[in-house]
From TrEMBL:
Organism: Lamprotornis superbus
This protein's name: L-gulonate 3-dehydrogenase
Entries under Gene3D superfamilies matching the protein: N-(1-d-carboxylethyl)-l-norvaline Dehydrogenase, domain 2, NAD(P)-binding Rossmann-like Domain
This protein's UniProt keywords: Cytoplasm, NAD, Oxidoreductase, Phosphoprotein
Family matches, as Pfam families: 3HCDH, 3HCDH_N
GO molecular-function terms, A-Z: L-gulonate 3-dehydrogenase activity; NAD+ binding
SUPFAM superfamilies xrefs: 6-phosphogluconate dehydrogenase C-terminal domain-like, NAD(P)-binding Rossmann-fold domains
Residue span(s) of domain 3-hydroxyacyl-CoA dehydrogenase C-terminal: 189-255
């Protein structure tokens, strides 16, 4: 049976987001942190976010913001936080030793049914969970920021994770409106960051070699490739850009290999190119908290609009 109560461990940026996503799905959420003050500001921030989304008409789920808020409670006692929860989402800072400590604490207090899930962006399940008594119930569920409007969740098992843990996590993510994908085995960077780093790496080389300016490089993505990638992936792009994938390979494999063979080594991400990119971006968006915050707010508004459009395109 799917859980009706979940625990979220860590109430920072991602912990808050998970609490909002689970509450929208109708789940009771116990939000745990080591600092009471942190929990208080998390609750206030969650309230503001929910109210704002309700005002904009983008609040998900069948409940009002007040009703969703009432599903979230906070707690500084780990045992009490996980009591009654059948799914635990860990969202503490990206620090292997800290996360291992938390999972070993959880390992001592949970039963054999609860799922222990980590939000980690890049720590491998084999590093996080090996040796735990409940390793079969452990998994990584890696969200993308902001999870409420970018629904992807990468589900990454430990080699000893029970397939039922993966299936239950997948079903739960679907149920709360996220878009889960399953990795069959762990790999450094998972999939999203591997793709992202491949793009960053080539972007860096092109700017470094003086082929294009940093701002034009970004436009290639935002006004070019990115337009279609919000709707279809690179493989479907191949399929549609010819008469199917096989035909695409017949037509373009040689050309792709020719280009790919000119790609350079992994960049250092330092020195002259770093200066050039940093200068261009700082001119466009000065590194001042207020300016960065405003730009992030604008980005999130764009994502909200895109999320709306995607829903509309699906239902049409
Ligand atoms: P954050 O620094 O905003 O929040 C961390 C929270 O953990 C804080 O509230 C802190 O008080 C709490 N904390 C620290 N020690 C703790 C402990 N022993 N027990 C319980 N809580 C404790 O970090 P953020 O950005 O929310 O990241 C959390 C996790 O999510 C990381 O593993 C990160 O890699 C992952 N993630 C982050 C994304 C992002 O865009 N920020 C995207 C996807 C995943």
């Amino acid at each position: 049976m799917e859980p009706s109560q979940v625990a979220v461990i860590g109430s920072g940026l991602i912990g808050r987001s998970w609490a909002i996503v689970f509450a929208a799905g109708g789940f009771k959420v116990k939000l745990y942190d080591i600092a009471q003050q942190q929990l208080m500001s998390a609750l206030e921030n969650i309230r503001q976010q929910m109210k704002e989304m309700e005002k904009l008409g983008v609040l998900k789920g069948a409940l009002s913001a007040e009703q969703q808020l009432a599903l979230i409670s906070v707690c500084t006692d780990l045992k009490a936080a996980v009591e009654g929860a059948t799914f635990i989402q860990e969202c503490t800072p990206e620090n292997l030793e800290l996360k291992k400590k938390i999972f070993s604490q959880l390992d001592l207090i949970v039963d054999d049914n609860v799922i222990l899930s980590s939000s980690t962006s890049c720590l491998l399940p084999s590093k996080l969970f090996t040796g735990l008594k409940h390793v079969k119930q452990c998994i990584v569920s890696h969200p993308v920021n902001p999870p409420y409007f970018v629904p992807l969740v990468e589900i990454v098992p430990h080699p000893e994770t029970d397939p039922s843990t993966t299936e239950r996590t997948y079903a739960l993510m679907k149920r709360i409106g996220q878009s889960p994908v399953k990795l069959n085995r762990e790999v450094e960077g998972f999939v999203l960051n591997r793709l992202q780093y491949a793009v960053i790496s080539e972007a860096w080389r092109l700017v470094g070699e003086g082929v294009i300016s940093p701002t034009d490089l970004d436009l290639v993505m935002s006004d070019g490739l990115g337009m279609r990638y919000a709707f279809i992936g690179p493989l479907e792009t191949m399929h549609l850009n010819a008469e199917g994938v096989s035909n695409y390979c017949e037509r373009y494999a040689e050309g792709m290999r020719l280009v790919l063979n000119t790609f350079g080594p992994v960049p250092e991400f330092s020195g002259e190119t770093a200066q050039k990119v940093s200068q261009a971006l700082s001119e466009k968006i000065p590194v001042v908290p207020k300016v960065l915050e405003a730009r992030r707010k604008w980005r999130d508004e764009c994502l909200i609009g895109l999320a709306k459009l995607k829903t509309q395109m699906k239902s049409d």
